[in-house]
Design goal:
Blueprint (H helix, E strand, L loop, with lengths): L1 E10 L2 E11 L4 E6 L5 H9 L6 E6 L2 E2 L5 H8 L2 E4 L11 H5 L1 H6 L4 H14 L15 H12 L6 E5 L7 H18 L2 E5 L3 H9 E5 L5 E5 L9 E7 L2 E6 L1 H6 L3 H7 L1
Parallel strand pairs: 3-8, 3-11, 6-7, 7-8
Antiparallel strand pairs: 1-2, 1-4, 4-5, 9-10, 11-12
Helix pairs in contact: 5-6, 6-7
Length: about 260
C-alpha cells in the first residue's frame, strides 16, 4: 500500500530522515515511535506529498508520488484521511461544517445527503449530538473524535494519525484508541499511527474488535487463540530506523536506545 525506499530529507543543514525504508501492507497498522524531532511527523507529510524528499522514492499503491504533479497528488490525497494533532478543526465552522467540509466543497450531494453522511460519521465516533456545536464548545477529546470523523469522509483507504492521544486523560485516550482499533478490524483501514504514547501503542497492538450479532462492538485481548498480526512498529532514532518489527520483538529488543525509550 505504501513504500518508502531510501528516503532522505533535510531542512537547511538539519537532516531529519536518513535513508529510511519500510513498507505498509493493505490493512496493516504501522506504529511509528521516537523522541520529539526524530522525523515521525515528517513521514506523514511525505506520504501526503506536502513536502518532497531530497532522495529516494515513495510509492502509494505502486505509484511513485515523488514524480507527480500537484494536480495528480490531489487525487492521491483523496484516498488518504489525516487526523491532525489537537483535531485542527476550523474554529469558525460548526461540527457539521467541519466534518462535511470536503463534501460541501467538492461533491454534488444535496445538503440533505451531506447531513445524512455527516450524522453517520459522527455516529461512528459517538458524537451525533454535537453536530451543531462550535469547536470552542468541545473538549480536547471531542475535537480529536470530530477530526477522525472528518478524516473518514470519502471512505479513505489509508488514515494517518499524528499524535492523536497526546495530552488526553486516560478515559478519553482509551476512546480514541478504540476508534483506531475499530477502523482497523471492522473497516480494514490501512493506518500510520505516529506517537510517543507507549500505553496507547501497546493497546492497539494487543487488542482487537469484534462485531457481535446484536450490533455491539466487543474489544478483546489477544492471546494464545488470537494474535493481532497486522500491527508492526518502527522506532526512529535521530532520523534513522533503529527497529522494525512486532510488539513482542520490540519488548525484547536489545538495542540500547530502544530499551531506554521503552523504559
Amino acid at each position: 500500500m505504501i513504500e518508502f525506499r531510501n528516503i532522505t530529507k533535510a531542512f537547511y543543514d538539519s537532516v531529519v530522515l536518513k535513508s529510511v525504508s519500510f513498507g505498509i501492507s493493505r490493512g496493516e497498522t504501522k506504529i511509528i515511535l521516537g523522541a520529539s524531532g526524530s522525523g515521525k511527523s515528517t513521514i506523514l507529510k511525505l506520504i501526503l506529498g506536502l513536502i518532497q524528499p531530497d532522495d529516494g522514492e515513495i510509492l502509494i499503491e505502486g505509484e511513485d508520488i515523488t514524480q507527480m504533479s500537484e494536480r495528480d497528488l490531489v487525487h492521491v490525497r483523496r484516498r488518504i484521511g489525516m487526523v491532525f494533532q489537537e483535531g485542527a478543526l476550523f474554529d469558525s465552522l460548526s461540527v457539521r461544517e467541519n466534518v462535511g467540509y470536503r463534501l460541501f466543497e467538492e461533491s454534488h450531494m444535496s445538503d440533505e445527503e451531506i447531513e445524512v453522511a455527516v450524522l453517520r460519521l459522527l455516529g461512528f465516533v459517538g458524537l451525533e449530538e454535537a453536530i451543531d456545536k462550535m469547536p470552542s464548545e468541545l473538549s480536547g477529546g471531542m475535537k480529536r473524535r470530530v477530526g477522525i470523523a472528518r478524516a473518514l469522509v470519502g471512505s479513505p483507504k489509508v488514515i494517518l494519525y499524528d499524535e492523536p492521544t497526546a495530552g488526553l486523560d486516560p478515559i478519553t485516550k482509551r476512546t480514541i484508541v478504540d476508534l483506531v482499533i475499530k477502523l482497523r478490524d471492522l473497516e480494514g483501514v490501512t493506518s500510520v499511527f505516529v506517537t510517543h504514547d507507549l500505553q496507547a501503542a501497546q493497546t492497539i497492538a494487543s487488542e482487537y474488535a469484534v462485531a457481535e450479532d446484536n450490533g455491539q462492538i466487543r474489544f478483546a485481548q489477544a492471546g494464545c487463540d488470537f494474535c493481532v498480526a497486522n500491527i508492526h512498529f518502527i522506532m526512529l532514532q535521530e532520523g534513522s530506523v533503529c527497529f522494525q518489527g512486532s510488539y513482542p520483538e520490540l519488548v525484547e529488543c536489545k538495542d540500547p536506545y530502544v530499551k531506554t525509550f521503552m523504559a
